[in-house]
Design a protein that fits this description.
Number of domains: 3
Distance between the termini: 51 Å
Strand content: 5-15%
Oligomer: single chain
Shape: globular
Number of strands: 16
Strand order of the largest sheet: 11-12-13-14
Largest sheet: 4 strands, antiparallel
CATH topology of the largest domain: Serine Threonine Protein Phosphatase 5, Tetratricopeptide repeat
Structural class: alpha+beta
CATH architecture of the largest domain: Alpha Horseshoe
Helix content: 40-55%
Radius of gyration: 25 Å
């Protein structure tokens, strides 16, 4: 274990948590670990039980020749050595338990909910020593889960199924099966396969780190190396300071983060971000007041979703429910845009929604931030808006969108985070294009900077982006981008040299 970088302490409020064992520099390796088990997330639609890619769960969909459960054609091709599916395959085949075809292959498939808990149980049998050392001390919130609605559902779909039809009743007690389900619910982290599909893994060292909505620990999961996880500190951390990971998405508002943490992790987060109605000055959940000019409406108690919201300037009040309803309405409108074809109309629709709510949402509101993410992906990529054809005004639009997201990330994911690197990559190209365009018009300077200074700024951005993405698995989309960034940087440096 990474004893030289962190120590494990315990307290009643947090349980076990990690602190820096010495001063750590941003980007420094904290620890590496292999998952105890890895598999499909809860409520997954039909997917390949080896590589997690979506498959047809209906009659005639691809199946494993041994056990009859979903396996894509690539993974079931002769000679391919199964790694992840092997364990449950033996159980299903030995007991003649077949997968029942489903009508809708896009909907969550209950039959697959047993897979990852079963992999945890089989991993326990295979490595009792690691279970005792690393998994036994983990929290699984048995009492709270018993009170929840899912306990009975799991009892039926997973516990009874594994102990009955799958013939595991003598090997695993009902308590142990529920414990495996609870361990995953409370502690699992989302990962992606090499092809970018979602899965979840149980990483006991990472789970020791306390949660905070502004993490100082970043991690990358390497699917091509057995889903090995590498954790680093994103910023400088002083000896004795707590190490924080995050169990939610940092780019969601407080109400949504709190409800996710309460429902699946069984706690209320009281980090400084959650307690601050302005979310550390970003106004990430703030609405604009329609009753006065320049007033900002924030929650009077961010931890209570039913608390009143109030304008700090004119005192106008509205209910938490009304705010959530408004947010929901806008969310639904944006979700519909995801169905648009990947063409000019899609980009224009996002810009229209963005303008439509300009007087309702604070400029840095999480909805605006998510629209910006969508727009950044579209500008420079879709027909009619490809990089080479963007006029300066739209190149500047893309730069502004990137910088607005970076302002939020600087607060919520400070330091060397993957999200930051991805935005930096998007930012470098329009900066180069704008510099070249000003130069082509015979202007010596743009915003007071010479062509060389502008290109050097783009080079620094690419360098920072490449250094962060270099920690990713080279086979993943982010890892491939690291390589692209390094090649672009080499070309850019050559161009800069010719300017001397």
């Amino acid at each position: 274990m990474g004893d030289s970088t962190y120590k494990v302490l315990e307290c009643p409020e947090l349980g076990r948590y990690g602190v820096a064992a010495r001063d750590l520099k941003a980007g420094e390796l904290l620890f590496e670990e292999t998952p105890f088990a890895v598999g499909p997330k809860l409520d997954s639609p039909p997917l390949c039980l080896e590589c997690c890619c979506p498959v047809d769960g209906g009659e005639g969909g691809p199946r494993c020749s041994r056990c009859g459960w979903p396996l894509c054609e690539d993974c079931s091709a002769g000679g391919a050595e199964l790694v992840y599916h092997r364990g449950e395959c033996e159980v299903f085949a030995a007991n003649g338990v077949r997968f029942r075809p489903v009508e809708d292959s896009t909907a969550g498939c209950v039959q697959l909910d047993c897979i990852t808990p079963l992999r945890v149980l089989l991993a326990k049998e295979a490595d009792e020593a690691r279970w005792k050392r690393e998994i036994e001390p983990m929290e699984y919130h048995d009492a709270e889960r018993r009170e929840g609605a899912n306990w009975k559902v799991d009892e039926n779909n997973i516990v009874a199924f594994l102990r009955g039809p799958c013939g595991l009743g003598k090997r695993f007690s009902a308590e142990l099966v529920q414990r495996a389900i609870g361990l995953l619910d409370v502690n699992a982290f989302e990962g992606r396969t090499g092809s970018g599909y979602s899965c979840r893994g149980l990483y006991p060292q990472l789970a020791i780190m306390a949660h905070n909505c502004v993490p100082n620990v970043v991690h990358s999961i390497h699917p091509s190396n057995g889903f090995r996880m590498v954790a680093r500190v994103a910023v400088d951390v002083k000896e004795g300071d707590k190490l924080y990971t995050t169990y939610t998405y940092t780019l969601t508002g407080t109400v949504a983060r709190q409800s996710i943490l309460k429902a699946s992790k069984f706690f209320t987060c009281r980090c400084t971000r959650c307690l601050d109605p302005t979310e550390l000055g970003t106004h990430f959940s703030t609405l604009l007041c329609s009753k006065c000019s320049g007033g900002l409406i924030t929650s009077t108690d961010p931890l209570d979703e039913n608390a009143e919201w109030k304008c700090g300037q004119c005192g106008f009040k509205t209910s938490g429910a009304a705010v959530q309803k408004a947010v929901m309405t806008i969310h639904n409108e944006i979700d519909e845009l995801a169905c648009f074809e990947y063409e000019a109309g899609r980009l224009e629709a996002y810009e229209t929604v963005y303008k439509k709510y300009r007087r309702v949402l604070h400029p840095l509101h999480f909805i605006n931030t998510s629209i910006r993410h969508s727009l950044i992906e579209l500008y420079g990529r879709i027909p009619g808006y490809e990089m080479a054809e963007l006029p300066d005004v739209l190149l500047e639009r893309k730069v502004e969108l990137c910088r607005s997201i970076l302002r939020v990330l600087d607060v919520f994911e400070p330091g060397k985070s993957r999200a930051r690197a991805m935005i930096l990559y998007e930012l470098h190209a329009p900066l180069i294009m704008l510099a070249q365009s000003a130069f082509a018009r015979g202007e010596d300077q743009r915003d007071g900077k010479s062509l060389k200074q502008q290109l050097n700024e783009a080079a620094q951005i690419l360098e920072e982006c490449g250094a962060i993405l270099d920690w990713e698995d080279p086979a993943t989309p982010e890892g491939i981008l690291a390589n692209v960034a390094q090649q672009s940087l080499a070309q850019l440096r050559q161009s800069i040299e010719t300017l001397d």
